[in-house]
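Troubleshooting log. The previous structure file for this entry was overwritten by mistake, so regenerating from the original sequence record. Sequence copied from the archived sheet and checked twice against the printout by T.R.
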Amino acid sequence: MSMWGWVQIFRSCCNFRCCNDVNNEDNHDENNADDKNHHIELATGRVQLINTIQNWDAKLLETKKPGKIVILNFSSSWSSPCRRIAQPYCKLADKYPSITFLTVDVDALAEMSSTWEVKATPTFFFLKEGKQVDKLVGADKQELKMKIANIDSLPS
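Regenerated output below.
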């Protein structure tokens, strides 16, 4: 059975699912090719990986500072859409150095995913001064760019 078949079985057995971006939702060939690229890192460069409660607790204090903008990406290494959006997300982190970019490993921090009511990966939360101002579910690169530009332009 192909990897795509196992993903479909997994999705049907549990509530947690991966989200495909609009342009690739039905493109199983691309998803199969992407499944072979497990080496893609979800957090590199300026993107910080959150995989322990201690990491999160330290960052949580930082998110509440005046004027502070944080992008919180709930992601998993097994999700094709997460791997597909990882590199563009890291490039956006380089483009917006005043914004903190975090990636939460949903497998390592399942309880945090539940607290934030994450139902699919990737899910992005846009925080300003510790408060959620926007949310994006799925790997839509254009929508992610637009939402980051919007939050960056909000008055302090």
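The longest helix spans residues 80-95. Archived copy saved in two places this time.
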